[in-house]
Design a protein that fits this description.
Largest sheet: none
Order of helices and strands: HHH
Distance between the termini: 19 Å
Number of helices: 3
Strand content: under 5%
Helix content: 55-70%
Radius of gyration: 19 Å
Shape: elongated
Length: about 100
């Protein structure tokens, strides 16, 4: 692992360089290069999920299908939380 601060936290410079093999259980097999997180792709996918979930929830609300509104509302909230967290990681300086 990389160098950490005295309190065990990583510094900004480490995040800006990237964290190789981050959450990759297959790292090092077959001479593969270290992987980096694909944060930009996750931002795009989470934004699409929020937009589609909210749009479909509105359609279900107009149709009067309460269970559809609830399910898609929960999905939209979960996607929005994921989107906020990934944006936070990207602004912290992680590449991707």
């Amino acid at each position: 692992m990389g160098r950490q601060d005295q309190d065990g936290r990583r510094g900004r410079a480490e995040y800006e360089r990237g964290l190789p093999d981050y959450h990759d259980p297959t790292r090092g097999f077959g001479g593969a290069a270290p992987t980096y997180s694909a944060l930009t792709l996750r931002i795009v996918l989470a934004a699409i999920a929020v937009a589609l979930s909210v749009g479909a929830a509105i359609v279900f609300a107009v149709m009067g299908v309460l269970w559809g509104v609830v399910v898609l509302g929960v999905l939209a909230i979960g996607s929005a939380v994921d989107l906020a967290w990934v944006i936070h990681r990207k602004r912290r300086g992680e590449p991707g």
